[in-house]
Amino acid sequence: MQYSELCNALEKIEKNPLQNYKIKILSELFANAKDDEIETVVMLVLADVFPAEAGKELGISSGLIAQTISRAFNISKERVIDDWSKSGDLGITAQNLCKERTQTTLFSSSLTIQRVLAGLQKIAGINGTKAQGRKMDILTELLSSADRTEPKYLMRTVIGQLRVGISDGLVKEAILSAFYTKIFWKGLLLQKKNSKKIFEEILELKGKRILVEEPMKEFLKKKDKKHFDMFLGANKVEIAGKEGIQKRFDEKGFFLENSSIDICIVEDMDFGNELKASVAGKIDRAYQVTNNLAMIAKISKEEGEKGLDKLEMQLFCPIKVMLAQKAKSFEDAFERVGVPAAIEYKYDGMRMQIHKSGDEVQLYTRMLENVTKQFPEIREVIVKNAKCNNCVIEGEAVGIDPKTGKYIPFQYISRRIKRKHNIDELAKEIPVILHIFDITFYEGKPCLNLPFKERREIIEKIIKPGKNIVLANQKRTSSIKEAELFYKQALDNKQEGVMIKNQDAFYVPGSRVGTMLKLKPVLDTLDLAIVGAEYGEGKRSGHLSSFLLACRDENTGEFLVVGKLGTGLKEKEEEGTTFKEISELIKDDILSQTDRSVLVSPKIIVEVAFEELQRSSNYNSGFALRFPRFIGLRPDKSINDVNTLGNLKKIFEDA
Ligand code: AMP
Predict the structure, then answer these.
(1) Looking at residue 107, what is its pLDDT?
(2) Which of 87, 186, 443, 564 is the most exposed, having the fewest neighbouring CB atoms within 10 Å of its CB?
(3) How many CB atoms within 10 Å of residue 488?
(4) Residue 432 neighbours by CB under 8 Å, 6+ apart
(5) Could you give the 3-state DSSP secondary structure of residue 601?
(6) What integer pLDDT is reported at residue 106 of this predicted model?
(7) What are the tens digits of pLDDT across the range 454-507?
(8) Taking 50 as the threshold, does the pLDDT of residue 578 lie above it?
(9) What is the pLDDT of residue 34?
(10) H or E element that contains 588
(11) 300 vs 542, which has greater pLDDT?
(12) Residues assigned a catalytic role
């Protein structure tokens, strides 16, 4: 497939924020892809260059991208920087300057999606001497061949954000729509898609195989007799009752090749939703256990839902972790998870998903980043203290002060994630203790569908506690008094609070479930992206000292400002995260500078506490945080984890 076809689709999606429209465009793109193209298409629309577990990065800074644009189009670096500071988006700058290019290089030939992905994958594999120059050569070659909107999306893919608002959920919907019978019901038909009502679009269809529930035939006919007659003539329309429809899908499924039905129109919303959910649920399950949408699209295209059913969690392919909801109190928690509940310390560390097979161990963060190299001592302790042939266990790695043996806050161990050199030294400086709290795979089989108490029994059986590994401290109780005491103990032990778990609950990957709750005393905290900053004065001159924080608009993918952060950052290194450290971190991602302020591309995520959330017209989010205070850097979270505008609205409404 030509890269331009993919970019055209992205362009349409960028220009039209309607979800249904985005799904339609994406599903057409997926349907048009050949069997050997579909995975590449899905990866590129998600700006993924590798599957999550590969743990590889392109390692190209914004500065290097700017240089590449200058080189590929033979335009001065100053001109690139100037355009970049105006557009604030290297993608747009690449597109703008592509029109002004003064040379077409020797490599100029059209780009295919395979060439783009292969080029980017090659870049990620380059290490060692002159790596930056070699990476730039490949990128220059790709960019020189790009035209029209291609430079924009190519550069944004390199940055890792397409900024068109394509989420994993949207891709799942598009897979559903591309490869399975589409289900409509009466209420949906009356909704507007773009300018037209959906039933008007349906009546214009040609050459489709359509199954219509009896009452809907009358409905469509009544709405527009003339077009309905044409619709009957132009498509292969079958009419059936509710039972007939159900039976047909029970027997043949929804995979287009088997069902032989492109569209099914039923009357009742619940029935329609039920039909739709039977495939959507399979896609969700497949995603939960593989975390790989490209593979799910390929299997959907080739085998349909039967192929999805065969997918299982596998060793060394991390799954999305199960997340907790907040509890207001133990009364609230016990009501929601039932009693006796399992209460555990909520350790203030870094979540690790640990895959082990024999002596091979791989570690993944909550973001499924591979951090095996950064924590060599964990590998050792798992091989020694996890008594099983293979397993996937989860735990919280908490940093300790080697002199006092006391726990230290999360920020310190986050330094270990970023460390590429002298790893052993840092491991001695900031050792960690693993607190194992769950298991999802055991002796060759997933155990997601075992009740939590049975999963806990397995970890109690296989984990031999040692110096660097223990089980999460747990108490099973129905007594609020006992629970309160345990909670106090957790806080006295410098942990964040407690987790309250339903003992019969399954492990649901990637969901914020109501069967695992967290209770902590601190003010609400938010994970926000830094999108701008101002240079400080006095003691802080020369460093950025006030940081613009933004949440993510889940519908558009845009980052919207919610406040300015200065409090909580330190001057001296020994006191914690410093202004200087953050300034260094964002240095490479500065998009533009005016006077004393800079705009930066959202990459650095910080956790902040705040007193209150207010409505405000000062910022484009419509909200402002009162007294935001820095809690810590969150290198373990991705830009998709940044709290959304929806989260803020909820906090505001719940306050
Ligand atoms: P939060 O990050 O505030 O949503 O809290 C959930 C996080 O608490 C999980 O992602 C884990 O990293 C962490 N955690 C600490 N202790 C436990 C525990 N005993 N069980 C489950 N999660 C825990």
Answers:
(1) 47
(2) 443
(3) 11
(4) 349, 350, 375, 377, 378, 397, 398, 399, 400, 413, 416, 468
(5) coil
(6) 46
(7) 999 999 999 999 989 999 999 999 999 999 999 999 988 888 899 999 999 999
(8) yes
(9) 97
(10) none
(11) 300
(12) 346
* pTM value surpassing 0.90: no
Whose C-alpha lies nearest to ligand 1, atom 14? 346
Residues having CB closer than 6 A to ligand 1 are 323-324, 344-347, 351, 366, 396, 437, 472, 499, 518
Q: Which of 330, 333, 291, 285 lies closest to 307 in space, CA to CA? A: 285
Q: What is the mean pLDDT of residues 33-56?
A: 90
CA 344 to ligand 1 center in whole angstroms: 10
What pLDDT shows up at residue 425? 87
Atom of ligand 1 nearest to the CA of 346: 16
What domains, with CATH codes, occur in the chain? 3-165 (1.10.3260.10), 180-267 (no CATH), 323-519 (3.30.470.30), 524-654 (2.40.50.140)
Pocket test for ligand 1, best of 344, 396, 436 (most atoms within 8 A of CB): 396
Ranges 36-50, 85-99, 170-184, 237-251: which has the least confidence: 85-99
Q: What is the pLDDT of residue 522?
A: 57
What percent of the chain is predicted at pLDDT more than 90?
Answer: 69
* Protein residue closest via CA to atom 16 of ligand 1: 346
* Cβ count within 10 A of residue 351: 17
Mean pLDDT rounded to a whole number for the chain = 91
* Residue 646: predicted pLDDT: 87
Q: Which atom of ligand 1 lies at the shortest distance from residue 348's CA?
A: 15
What would the DSSP string read from start to end of 276-344? HHHHHHHHHHHHHHH--HHHHHHHHHHTTHHHHHH----TTSPPPPPEEEE-SSHHHHHHHH-SSEEEE
- Among protein residues, the one whose CA lies closest to atom 1 of ligand 1: 324
Q: If you measure from the C-alpha of residue 195 to the centroid of ligand 1, how many angstroms do you get, rounded to a whole number?
A: 46
Residue type, 43: M
- Alpha-carbon distance 318 to 52, whole Å? 8
Q: What is the dihedral of CA 112, 18, 548, 45, to 10 degrees?
A: -20
The rounded Å distance from CA 495 to ligand 1 centre is 11
Q: What is the CA radius of gyration of the chain?
A: 27
**Pocket probe mutation, ligand 1, options 432, 436, 437, max atoms within 8 Å of Cβ:** 437
Contacts of 603 (CB under 8 A, 6+ apart): 529, 530, 586, 589, 639
Q: What are φ and ψ of residue 153, in 5° steps?
A: -75, -30
Nearest residue (CA) to ligand 1, atom 18: 346
Taking Cα atoms as reference points, which of 210, 211, 209, 192 lies closest to residue 201? 192
Per-residue pLDDT of 560-569, as tens digits, reads 999 999 888 8
Residue nearest ligand 1's atom 12 by CA: 351
pLDDT at 641 over 70: yes
Higher pLDDT, 134 or 85: 134
| Mean pLDDT calculated for residue range 181-201 | 89
CA–centroid distance, residue 504 to ligand 1 (Å): 18
Dist. CA 598 → ligand 1 center (Å): 35
Closest atom of ligand 1 relative to the 344 alpha carbon = 19
What spacing in Å lies between the alpha carbon of 346 and ligand 1's midpoint?
A: 6
Q: Which of 428, 420, 382 has the alpha carbon at shortest distance from 401? A: 428
